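Quick one, T. Sequence first:
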Amino acid sequence: MNSTKAIIMLLSIFLFSSCKAQEDVHSKTSTKNKAHWISLFNGKDLEGWIVKIKGHPLGDNYKNTFRVVNGMLQVNYDEYDDFNNAFGHLFYKKPFSSYRLKLEYRFLEKQVKGGQGWAERNSGIMIHSQAPETMGLNQDFPVSVEVQLLGGIKKGVSRPTANVCTPGTHIVMHDTLIKKHCINSSSETYYGNQWVAVEVLVIKDSIISHYVNGKEVLSYAKPQIGGDYNTLKSQEGQLLTEGYISLQSESHPIEFKKIELLEIEPDN
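Structure tokens:
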């Protein structure tokens, strides 16, 4: 073997080994990242979740509002005669601070009798929420930040989803304190009963971003206690760095699937 062939062979071995090492690192990293994702919903029952419905004690799943049907977590009103402002929330059992949360949702059937007009094809994911046991018996909504989920009602009329609403809170956008209750995202409007994928990136109080079907549609920062629905007046202005996650019951049937969370270690 001449020197030129030897050099080529050595270079080939080196390049192969280098590529293989990079593939191994990528594989281990991917596996590690996947391992960190946890399913908040087991697809069988409400284990790990806590119900709080207005007018009813903590843990009372009034009229079987929250249930599991065919592997989906469903909000259903088939046992109701009238909604009667029985706003409800299904809380995951522990708080989180920095994470990625993803799920898919779709609206079902028709709104229950007695539901507010604004609540048609309307639900939400509450984040950085107060603990469920601290809610009053007749409290409508937890002090939290809401990732508002909407569905289109009339063809041609825009109704974006993954908006932000602020029951008992304020947020900051473009260095300005926002006191308006709801801010629309830049998402498309989704009609019918199609599944919509939503992801929320939360890094303590520094940044919160909403994504719909993989596209960023809204971003804001510094969630803090204040404004309407605030039951924590003594904590006015306090930044929210962690809290509970809950799913809403606002009078329109909806179901959820693939509810997963990846905790994040934020940079100091």
